[in-house]
Amino acid sequence: MSELEPHIRAELLSAAVPTVVSLLYKRGYDTAFMAAPKALNPNANTFVGVAFTVRTVPVRKDLVEDQAAGRRPALQGQATNQVGKGDVLVVGMDGETRTAFMGDIMATHFLSKGVAGVVLDGGVSDAAAISKIPLPVFACGTAGYPVTSHRFVLDLQVPIACGGVTVFPGDIIMGDGNGVVVIPHALAPEIAKAAADREKLESWIVAEVAKGRSLAGFYPPTEATMAEYAKVSGS
What we know:
Mean pLDDT: 96
Radius of gyration: 20 Å
Number of domains: 2
Order of helices and strands: HHEEEHHEHEEHEEEEEEEHH
Distance between the termini: 35 Å
CATH topology of the largest domain: Glucose Oxidase, domain 1
CATH superfamily of the largest domain: Ribonuclease E inhibitor RraA/RraA-like
Helix content: 25-40%
Low-confidence stretches: none
Number of strands: 13
Strand content: 15-25%
């Protein structure tokens, strides 16, 4: 697994998810934003990390029996053990909220390991308790049933679909109060720098508008706006 360089992480953390979504869209990535998973703790919703993927499928009797008999590995437990510091656990559940992939004990374990965040397009157990844990967890609902009631963990570290977005192991996952965006790993350096630069520009624009400046001919930024910004920023 490729690690995320500290300066890339810092640049992305300085930006907002909509900024990154916009930059990816301009490069042809128009399905990078996960609209469905929502932050369970509004005070702990900002993260950047490397995707560790979990693929689940609708449960089937023989799969559960094979796992119970030891003919199939218990991959939910393996995922819990293998996901590491700086990773984002991304679980594809096809929007299934009748069952829970994890609960507050597992969330506490991830927090202690330094996991950057958890994103799943399905349910969790005891969302109320998870909402008090300072680990970014994005999910679609809450349920008390174990994951094998409706889903079965079939693969780890394979391409998955989560929240309508394709996620490869090693992709960069970024979240904040606006939602979650997936950045292809190879694009991360380019997108991170562009996002950080865009945030600096927009912060200046906001400050100017707050002073009473008209948007006409100023925003969206024109060539004249960019020239003025370059002069005041020294860029």
